[in-house]
Amino acid sequence: MKITRYPPTKNKSLRAWSAADEYILKVLSRMEISGKNIVICNDRFGYLATHLHQHGPYSVIAYKSQKTSLLMNLQNNGIQPDHEKLLNPLEPVPVAIDVGLMIVPKSLELFRFYLQYLHRFLKEGGTVVCGFMTRHFTTQILSLAGACFEEVDQSLAWKKSRVLILKGKKPDPGYELTETIPYIFSDGIWQDIIQYSGVFSSGNIDYATQFLLDHLFLQQDENIILDLGCGNGVIARAIQLKKPNAELHLLDDFFLAIESSRQNLQPENVHFHWSDSVDDIGNVRFDLAVSNPPFHFEHEVNTEVSINLFREVAGKLKPGGRFLCVANKHLGYQSSLKKFFTTCNVLAESNKYIIYECIKGVFTS
Ligand SMILES: C[S@@+](CC[C@H](N)C(=O)[O-])C[C@H]1O[C@@H](n2cnc3c(N)ncnc32)[C@H](O)[C@@H]1O
Q1: Rounded to whole angstroms, how far apart are CA atoms 241 and 250?
Q2: Atom 20 of ligand 1, nearest CA residue
């Protein structure tokens, strides 16, 4: 099998799978899985689903980029995808699961979410196998698994990875799928921000986001606005409170982020895009785009995704349109931004964060 990454990366040390994926396949080779119902979670590039295709597994697809990657890898290996076997994380599994598989995500909230998901649809005698790299181990992985299952067997390390084999369903732990973050917007309006487990910045509004919100002043002629990498939609909601008639577009790669945003905004004149590319939005041209862009891909620090989004957003602004971007200072985005925008200045900075104001096209002040 040839498995590649989507989005592609220039970093040749990054692969589309880890030893944890291989370890899961090794464990499965010792189990009788033919004719069994298999469900896979957090298979970011489709390595497991492609290797197990002859068993017709279900894949839980949480990211649009994950879907693209899986379909690409199936196709590159001459395998016809079965779209009915692709589930979103809020969709029930239509069969009782014999074997659940998961690469443990970086977010422990998302791990808990997937554990509960697999647990809910697992047959009484079913098994869940979770793989992770040993360096990512925390004891919380064991305690969360132990809350759902009687037996939590941790394997020996192999190629610096481990697997957990979980058996014996305990009663449903009944975790809430969403959390509530009380927040006071700058206008003094208080709102409970709702987000699904695993959506960015559990427990509080992120400090960088807060810094951006503190410096977010909208111009009178800015009426078509994009929140890029919207997460729970808090930035778009702040804009909606300031400009209730603006046309807002929210875009995020993560399905649960988009579903969270839907709960936090008034729906009128708002468009939600589950996508990893601004180019998917169509013919809209924006007066303003705002972002606290991603710089992690699971455990990897990765700015390639953001830099690609900067290039895309520049192509979607009207002449004179603005892009406001907050980031950790050490990421040094200004040189990349200057490649795509006519001007890129610092709007505000603290000792940790910086807000860039980028303008597209001819601009007269
Ligand atoms: C730093 S978080 C910011 C979230 C939210 N705007 C906030 O301030 O709380 C970055 C967001 O970008 C999303 N993301 C990552 N890669 C993306 C991509 N290629 N396209 C769109 N969104 C992406 C992540 O899912 C995450 O929600």
Answers
A1: 15
A2: 276
